[in-house]
Design brief:
Layout: H1 2-21, E1 32-40, E2 47-55, E3 59-63, E4 69-72, E5 76-80, E6 85-94, E7 100-109, E8 115-119, E9 133-134, E10 137-138, E11 147-149, E12 156-159, E13 162-172, E14 175-179, E15 181-183, E16 193-200, E17 207-215, H2 218-221, E18 228-233, E19 241-247, E20 257-262, E21 271-277, E22 281-286, E23 289-295, E24 306-314, H3 316-319, E25 328-339
Parallel strand pairs: 11-14
Antiparallel strand pairs: 1-2, 2-5, 3-4, 3-6, 6-7, 8-25, 9-15, 10-11, 12-13, 13-14, 13-25, 15-24, 16-21, 16-25, 17-18, 17-24, 18-19, 19-20, 21-22, 22-23
Length: 340
């Protein structure tokens, strides 16, 4: 009997002890009195200071209206916008028990970009050697192109305020066509900003002009791991159709990310081809009209320095069949500018 009684007491004490160790469930708390204030820096740098306050808030989640978010214990932060615009900014206050409340405001931002690199092509002769080098050779390095890239003035020269990259039908070192491919590799590269190039494109089926960029780590990472940003591509068989494209692992070649737009007079008039590149987005424009936006993230190769490339290819995987009557055609570039 004593044994049974002792066991019963022990069981009661054990249950009591377990019950005492279970913490009470806290009452749900919802943040109240949420406010959000934005102060835009008057220097047109794009910097905006945000202050959020709320009663019973344990954390604040900011959505800056660009696809970028930030979670903070306190409600004070500064965010730098890369382009002018009106942005919807939302802050969500969360309590320690998981309840939340949100508030949104509109923020008008003016950003003045600084010109950090350019070539206006105002000096007649060969392209500026301090800014441009050449890729030399045939085949297009995997694109099955039919031209041989040279450094001759017959294929690349500055005259009358424009750079002319000329593709020619001629026999040269085993190839049936010549052209030029200029690049700023080893001379200039950059991360983020706006690129503008004013250009008139070559005519003729089989021509494939491009204004584009590759990641600085091209020689070590290889392609497409280095990333490729094609600001402008055009093929003569699809007259007036402008392509903006991004190549990266899992999305390269015919599976690349990009968009296109049809314009008028691409081969007879100059147009401005632009890129706006930030840590959160890559935008492609023609004559300041947006035609494709890509969401950039930290896991992609588009967050390092890139160098510029200007070229006219002939035929190849994208250029297609060349008109048998083709003799020569030029891409003329009035200027190329980089802003940051």
């Amino acid at each position: 009997m004593k044994t049974i009684f002792a066991f019963a007491i022990a069981l009661v004490l054990g249950i009591t002890a377990c019950t005492e160790k279970t913490p009470p469930v806290p009452a749900a708390v919802t943040p109240t009195n949420l406010t959000l204030v934005a102060v835009v820096n008057p220097d047109n740098s794009g910097n905006v200071s945000f202050t959020a306050t709320a009663t019973n808030a344990a954390a604040f989640v900011f959505d800056f209206g660009t696809g970028s978010t930030q979670t903070l214990a306190a409600g004070n932060t500064t965010y730098k916008y890369s382009t002018s615009g009106t942005y919807t900014v939302t802050v969500t206050a969360k309590s320690s028990t998981g309840q939340s409340v949100s508030k949104s405001i509109l923020v008008n931002v003016t950003v003045t970009l600084s010109l950090v690199w350019f070539d206006e092509f105002n000096t007649d002769g060969l392209p500026d050697a301090s800014k441009w080098g050449y890729d030399l050779g045939a085949g297009g390095w995997g694109n099955n192109e039919l031209q041989y890239y040279t450094s001759r003035p017959e294929n690349a020269t500055v005259t009358g305020g424009v750079l002319k990259i000329t593709a020619k039908a001629e026999s040269y070192l085993g190839s049936s066509y010549t052209s030029a491919r200029l690049l700023s590799r080893g001379k200039y590269s950059f991360k983020y900003g706006r690129v503008e190039a004013r250009a008139k494109l070559p005519a003729g089926a089989g021509t494939w002009p491009a204004i584009w960029m590759l990641g600085d780590n091209f020689s070590t990472a290889g392609w497409p791991a280095c990333g490729e940003i094609d600001i402008m591509e055009h093929v003569g068989s699809q007259l007036n159709k402008i392509f903006g494209t991004l190549h990266h692992p899992g999305h390269s070649g015919g599976n690349a990310d990009g968009g296109s737009v049809n314009i008028s007079n691409a081969t007879t008039e100059f147009h401005k081809y632009s890129l706006e590149w930030t840590s959160t987005s890559i935008k492609f424009l023609v004559d300041d009209v947006l035609f494709y936006t890509f969401a950039n993230t930290g896991s992609l190769p588009f967050n390092q320095n890139f160098f510029l490339i200007l070229n006219v290819a002939m035929g190849g995987n994208f250029g297609g069949a060349i008109d048998p009557a083709f003799t020569s055609a030029s891409m003329e570039i009035d200027y190329i500018r980089v802003y940051n």
